[in-house]
Amino acid sequence: MDRRSFLKNSALGGTAAATAALAAPAIAQGNRTLTMVTSVPDGFAIFDDAAEYLKNAVNTMSGGSLTIDKKPAGSLVGAFEVFDAVSSGQADMYHSAEYYFGGQHPGYYFFTAVPFGGTAQELINWYQHGGGQELHDELGQIFGMKTFLAGNTGAQPGGWFRKEIESAADLQGLKFRMPGLGGRALGNTGASVQNVPGGEIYQALASGAIDGAEWIGPLADERLGLQEVCEFYYTGGFHEPGSALSSAVNLDVWESLSPAHQSIIENAAMATHHWSLSQSLEGNGAALQRLQASGTKVMSFPDDVWEAFRVASLQAMDEFAGDELYDRIRASFEASRDSSAAWIAASDGAFTAQRDK
Ligand code: CA
């Protein structure tokens, strides 16, 4: 037996023994409880709202025969350890944003957002009807997980700045917080990209440790109080045009579930994606009005800055070219996005241009 299969069998043996010891009465009644680890604290805007919705939807739809025990970041494993915890069987499932796992495989970036990528609508078109789910499954097979999209923030703003950005030259040396592939792209423009956890952004801006930061959107950004430490808010962003959240179930656990329970998780995840996106869009509209009323200057980047972002994003995307699965995911995503985007522009775009004149 090689080391890998030994570890896998040990982990499975441990899980089976623990399940038998702790959950025998529940299983005897046909009930299941899945431990779900997340990457944020309980009550965290948008992220945990989606995790909570997913948990409640599964519990209700199953009539209590399938329950989710949600464990916030740090209670069972750390925020970024959820991937390994579910892959190894230490936890049954996670709710997270998969661009945190680009180091495990760069294909994961596509299942949150890529710079100059797709809007939430374009992403879900690809995911459900353009081959995205199948590629997600293929990626999941490598790590022993079955994954679903389960939340979406919508397009994320370019972020908060203490000084106005008048040209691409202003990006040089700018100390800016931005994660994911977008952050790698921003680094290519000459900015100094910083990794600052969500809970520390306010302090980093207030102390002057960073010059600016992106977070999620008006609703969540307002709750962090970023309007108190920055005057300029660039509402259009290149880096996360429609960021999805995901939920993954350990593959052995998934295969042990009844078809009804599998369908409940799948449909609850889909409902969560829809609910979460509309929560963001509705909440962001109202929050932006409040921010403007209290003095935040709402801005747009000049064209040459957008051009710098475009060039830098392509460079960041090309860095992983040559990985066979990454290339296939990218080609599939881009083909679907270009096709559905063209139709959306010709239909919704043509309509809203007239309506909003
Ligand atoms: Ca963000």
Keywords:
about 350 residues; alpha/beta; five-stranded mixed beta sheet; 12 helices; about 50% helix; binds calcium ion
Would you kindly provide a written description of the structure presented here, covering whatever features stand out?
The chain has 357 residues and is an alpha/beta fold. The chain has twelve helices and eleven strands. Helix 6 crosses helix 11. The longest helix has 35 residues, at 259-293. It starts with a helix and ends with a helix. Bound molecules: calcium ion. The site of calcium ion has 5 residues, from loops.
The gist of it:
This protein has 357 residues and is α/β, with parallel strands linked by helices. Helix content is 51%, strand content 14%. The longest helix is centred in the last third of the chain and has 35 residues, at 259-293.
Number of strands: 11
Oligomer: single chain
Strand content: 5-15%
List low-confidence stretches.
1-26
String of helices and strands = HEHEHEHHEEEHEHEHEEHHEHH
Sheet with most strands: strand arrangement: 7-6-8-5-9-11
C-alpha geometry: globular
Mean pLDDT: 92
The largest sheet, given as strand count, sense and whether it forms a barrel, is: 6 strands, mixed
Tally of alpha and pi helices: 12
Helix content: 40-55%
